[in-house]
Request: fold
Amino acid sequence: MTESILKEYFENKISSEFLSADLNGSIKKLTYDTSQISVVEMESDSEFEVEQSHLNKILNDALNGNLTFDNLKTIASGLMFSDYFTWDSDTEIGNRIATIIVELDNTEINFPISTENLKLWKKYLESGVHKLNEK
Reply:
């Protein structure tokens, strides 16, 4: 995963297909239950704040078949460990963004990525009502 490419995708400068091509092969399986993500970090003194619209974009592209479920997991893992991408978890929307990123990154512990769950994450992002726990 290349952080500059993800940034350009969030800024609508590149397509989801271009992002997906960059993401493919970014996660390498080390053992049956561990993997490692390969990230090309941004060389920047500034940070990029992930907003509701950015998360909505990746969820929509996954629902429309433009990003795979593996792509989503890779993006979430990359965001989790990035020094460049940030969000303010102390705000209501920032907390929703953080929750969704953590849940997408840890599907084995939380919820599997599925069409139904993508729709529920979108509703949570928009409304603050987290219905994945009710399943």
Summary: Residues 92-105 form the longest helix (14 residues). The CA atoms of residues 19 and 66 lie 10 Å apart.
